[in-house]
Write a structure and sequence with these properties.
55% helix, elongated, 97 residues, single chain, 3-stranded antiparallel beta sheet
Length: 97
Amino acid sequence: MSKHERWNTLLELLAASGKIEVEEAATTLDVSAATIRRDLDELAEQQLLVRTRGGAVAHGVSYELPLRYKSTRHAPEKKRIAEAAADLVAPGEVVGL
């Protein structure tokens, strides 16, 4: 599992429960506690979470994953939807969002 995949999983776990423990995350992701601590420290530097003793909590009351992490989730489905939408637009037509 790559670093960014771990980060996505950590952020998803955090979004689901509002907090995450280092040991629990290490077991879930099958990596060392030191790796999780480093990952949490890096995510905290990006202000995506707040570090606590032994884990982290969500940053703020409403926690939403940043777009750069969402963009790679469900990529095949998004591509299929985009292709279906493109088939509905004739050459020269414009679509406003």
